[in-house]
Amino acid sequence: MTAPAREPAAIRTTVGKKVLVALSGILFIGFVLAHMIGNLKIFLGPTPINRYGEWLRDIGEPAFPRSTILWALRTVLFVGLIVHVGLTIHLARRSRAAREERYVHPGVVQANYASRTMRWGGLAIFLFLIFHLMDFTWGVFSGFVRGDVYHNVVTSFQRVPVTIVYLFAMAALGLHLYHGTWSTMQTLGVNRKRWDKGIRALALSLALIIPIGFAAVPLAVVFRIVN
After folding, report:
1. 23 near 180, Cβ under 8 Å?
2. What distance in Å separates the CA atoms of residue 55 and residue 70, rounded to the nearest whole number?
3. Non-local CB neighbours of 163 within 8 Å, separated by 6+ positions
4. How far, in Å, CA of 88 to CA of 91, rounded?
5. 77 CB-side CA count, 13 A
6. Each residue of 183-213: pLDDT tens digit?
7. Which residues, 6+ apart, have CB-to-CB distance to 119 below 8 Å?
8. Count of beta carbons in the 10 Å neighbourhood of residue 83
9. Most buried in the list 1, 18, 40, 152, measured by CB within 10 Å?
């Protein structure tokens, strides 16, 4: 009988798992910030946003075949997502199993509120991610034109239900960014008292700037600023 595979030393402990969750969280903060900035190119018109979409596929040419770097980045993000979601679920289950009794008044415990917000907000973001890929990458829905980013964005957000789902997802993202940034700083040991105001300002800035930047695009389509 073969011995069961052991976890790598880096993730064998609860602290190690939390550090990996924090580091993968930083990866996704960087991604959503860059993605938001790229989305805002739609305000420059069809040519700039479509050229940007082509540039993402052309990165690395001629040293690498077309889309190689893009797929490498997608792979890194996919692995990061598995690590982030998988370890978060594992830690939540371990925490619940270790808890001997429930809080008497869970509604007034800040840590419990933040935990619920992260859990359900994370689930909402994950489900939205699948829908978002179906809509803008896989072209599942009608009206999709491969390579025409401007057309696809306008066509998608002209459907009011899609815009509503998108805006709710951005609200969930904002809460996740706020609590996640704070939790990341705590996990990495940089939550010194003298830095408290700066960390809160950073968390709040990310929680506002990124979702608002994303939400600006569908709202611009709805109000015919972009059409």
Report:
1. no
2. 10
3. 157, 218, 219, 221, 222
4. 5
5. 13
6. 899 889 887 788 889 999 999 999 999 999 9
7. 92
8. 18
9. 152
Predicted pLDDT of residue 112: 55
**Helix runs in the chain, H state only:** 14-39, 46-58, 68-98, 110-136, 149-157, 160-187, 196-222
- The confidence score (pLDDT) of residue 74 equals 96
Residue type at position 153? V
User: For residues 221 and 158, is the Cβ–Cβ distance under 8 A?
Assistant: yes
* DSSP conformation letters of 64-109: S-TTHHHHHHHHHHHHHHHHHHHHHHHHHHHHHHH--S--SSGGG-
209's CB contacts (< 8 A; 6+ apart) are 36
Question: pLDDT below 50 — which residues of the chain?
Answer: 1, 3, 100, 103-109
- 204: its two tokens: 């709040």
Domain 11-100+110-222, what fold? 3 helical TM bundles of succinate and fumarate reductases (1.20.1300)
Q: What is the DSSP letter of 42?
A: G
